Amino acid sequence: MRSVVAVVAGLLFGAGLALSGMVDPAKVLGFLDITGAWDPSLGGVMAAAIPMTALFYYLGRRRGVSLSGSPLPEPPSKVIDARLIGGSIIFGIGWGLAGLCPGPAIADLALDGRVLPFVVAMAVGMILVKAIRRIPIIH
Q1: Burial letters for 31-63: b for 16+ Cβ neighbours within 10 Å, e otherwise?
Q2: Where in the sequence is the domain holding 36, given as residue range(s)?
Q3: Is 17 in contact with 107 (CB distance < 8 Å)?
Q4: Quick count: other Cβ atoms within 10 Å of Cβ 101?
Q5: Total domain count for the chain?
Q6: What's the pTM?
Q7: 118 and 124 in contact (C-beta within 8 Å)?
Protein backbone atom coordinates (compact mmCIF):
# COMPACT_ATOMS: atom_id res chain seq x y z
CA MET A 1 0.00 0.00 0.00
CA ARG A 2 2.86 2.39 0.79
CA SER A 3 4.23 1.98 -2.72
CA VAL A 4 0.84 2.71 -4.26
CA VAL A 5 0.43 5.87 -2.17
CA ALA A 6 3.98 6.95 -3.05
CA VAL A 7 3.40 6.43 -6.79
CA VAL A 8 0.06 8.27 -6.72
CA ALA A 9 1.56 11.14 -4.71
CA GLY A 10 4.52 11.35 -7.10
CA LEU A 11 2.26 11.34 -10.14
CA LEU A 12 0.05 14.06 -8.63
CA PHE A 13 3.10 16.17 -7.77
CA GLY A 14 4.57 15.74 -11.26
CA ALA A 15 1.24 16.48 -12.92
CA GLY A 16 0.84 19.61 -10.81
CA LEU A 17 4.31 20.79 -11.77
CA ALA A 18 3.65 20.13 -15.45
CA LEU A 19 0.16 21.70 -15.41
CA SER A 20 1.43 24.84 -13.66
CA GLY A 21 4.35 25.15 -16.07
CA MET A 22 6.90 24.86 -13.28
CA VAL A 23 8.91 22.25 -15.21
CA ASP A 24 9.79 24.99 -17.71
CA PRO A 25 13.07 26.60 -16.58
CA ALA A 26 12.19 29.78 -18.51
CA LYS A 27 9.04 30.18 -16.40
CA VAL A 28 11.00 29.80 -13.16
CA LEU A 29 13.73 32.19 -14.36
CA GLY A 30 10.96 34.65 -15.30
CA PHE A 31 9.79 34.59 -11.68
CA LEU A 32 13.33 35.21 -10.42
CA ASP A 33 13.91 38.09 -12.87
CA ILE A 34 12.38 40.84 -10.74
CA THR A 35 14.16 43.62 -12.67
CA GLY A 36 13.15 42.42 -16.14
CA ALA A 37 10.16 40.61 -17.58
CA TRP A 38 8.93 39.36 -14.21
CA ASP A 39 6.44 36.47 -14.30
CA PRO A 40 4.58 36.25 -10.95
CA SER A 41 2.86 32.92 -11.75
CA LEU A 42 5.25 30.87 -9.57
CA GLY A 43 4.09 32.98 -6.63
CA GLY A 44 0.52 31.94 -7.44
CA VAL A 45 1.53 28.29 -7.50
CA MET A 46 3.21 28.68 -4.10
CA ALA A 47 0.23 30.62 -2.73
CA ALA A 48 -2.01 27.69 -3.66
CA ALA A 49 0.40 24.93 -2.63
CA ILE A 50 1.36 26.18 0.84
CA PRO A 51 -2.18 26.19 2.33
CA MET A 52 -2.91 22.77 0.80
CA THR A 53 0.31 21.38 2.27
CA ALA A 54 -0.48 22.91 5.65
CA LEU A 55 -4.01 21.46 5.60
CA PHE A 56 -2.90 17.93 4.75
CA TYR A 57 0.05 18.10 7.17
CA TYR A 58 -2.38 19.18 9.91
CA LEU A 59 -4.77 16.32 9.05
CA GLY A 60 -1.87 13.86 8.98
CA ARG A 61 -0.62 15.06 12.38
CA ARG A 62 -4.09 14.48 13.82
CA ARG A 63 -4.05 10.91 12.43
CA GLY A 64 -0.49 10.40 13.63
CA VAL A 65 0.62 8.82 10.35
CA SER A 66 0.73 9.63 6.65
CA LEU A 67 -1.70 8.13 4.14
CA SER A 68 0.92 5.44 3.47
CA GLY A 69 0.94 4.52 7.16
CA SER A 70 4.41 5.94 7.79
CA PRO A 71 4.95 8.11 10.86
CA LEU A 72 5.28 11.81 10.10
CA PRO A 73 8.80 12.90 11.05
CA GLU A 74 9.61 16.00 13.03
CA PRO A 75 11.80 18.55 11.28
CA PRO A 76 15.43 17.45 11.67
CA SER A 77 16.38 20.76 13.28
CA LYS A 78 14.82 24.05 14.17
CA VAL A 79 18.21 25.76 14.38
CA ILE A 80 19.16 28.29 11.74
CA ASP A 81 22.89 27.76 11.43
CA ALA A 82 25.70 28.27 8.90
CA ARG A 83 25.02 24.87 7.32
CA LEU A 84 21.36 25.75 6.64
CA ILE A 85 22.18 29.21 5.33
CA GLY A 86 25.06 27.92 3.17
CA GLY A 87 22.93 25.16 1.71
CA SER A 88 20.12 27.63 1.00
CA ILE A 89 22.52 29.94 -0.80
CA ILE A 90 23.95 27.11 -2.91
CA PHE A 91 20.43 25.88 -3.72
CA GLY A 92 19.33 29.39 -4.69
CA ILE A 93 22.35 29.95 -6.93
CA GLY A 94 21.72 26.65 -8.71
CA TRP A 95 18.01 27.42 -9.05
CA GLY A 96 18.78 30.88 -10.43
CA LEU A 97 21.37 29.61 -12.91
CA ALA A 98 19.41 26.64 -14.23
CA GLY A 99 15.79 27.53 -13.45
CA LEU A 100 15.43 24.04 -12.01
CA CYS A 101 15.18 22.51 -8.57
CA PRO A 102 15.00 18.78 -7.77
CA GLY A 103 11.25 18.10 -8.12
CA PRO A 104 10.69 19.92 -11.40
CA ALA A 105 13.98 18.63 -12.83
CA ILE A 106 12.98 15.01 -12.25
CA ALA A 107 9.47 15.66 -13.59
CA ASP A 108 10.96 17.43 -16.60
CA LEU A 109 13.05 14.36 -17.50
CA ALA A 110 9.90 12.88 -19.04
CA LEU A 111 9.35 15.98 -21.18
CA ASP A 112 12.81 17.26 -22.00
CA GLY A 113 15.97 15.15 -21.93
CA ARG A 114 18.12 18.30 -21.86
CA VAL A 115 17.73 18.40 -18.07
CA LEU A 116 19.63 15.10 -17.72
CA PRO A 117 23.00 16.80 -17.02
CA PHE A 118 21.36 18.82 -14.22
CA VAL A 119 19.81 15.69 -12.68
CA VAL A 120 23.13 13.81 -12.91
CA ALA A 121 24.99 16.74 -11.32
CA MET A 122 22.34 16.89 -8.59
CA ALA A 123 22.73 13.16 -7.87
CA VAL A 124 26.53 13.50 -7.76
CA GLY A 125 26.16 16.41 -5.34
CA MET A 126 23.91 14.33 -3.07
CA ILE A 127 26.43 11.48 -3.09
CA LEU A 128 29.27 13.89 -2.27
CA VAL A 129 27.31 15.37 0.64
CA LYS A 130 26.76 11.89 2.09
CA ALA A 131 30.49 11.15 1.73
CA ILE A 132 31.49 14.46 3.32
CA ARG A 133 29.11 13.94 6.26
CA ARG A 134 30.92 10.69 7.06
CA ILE A 135 34.07 12.67 7.83
CA PRO A 136 34.04 13.08 11.65
CA ILE A 137 35.46 16.61 11.70
CA ILE A 138 32.87 18.00 9.27
CA HIS A 139 29.80 16.30 10.72
Answers
A1: beeeeeeebeebeebeeeeeeeeeeeeeeeeee
A2: 2-133
A3: yes
A4: 16
A5: 1
A6: 0.62
A7: no
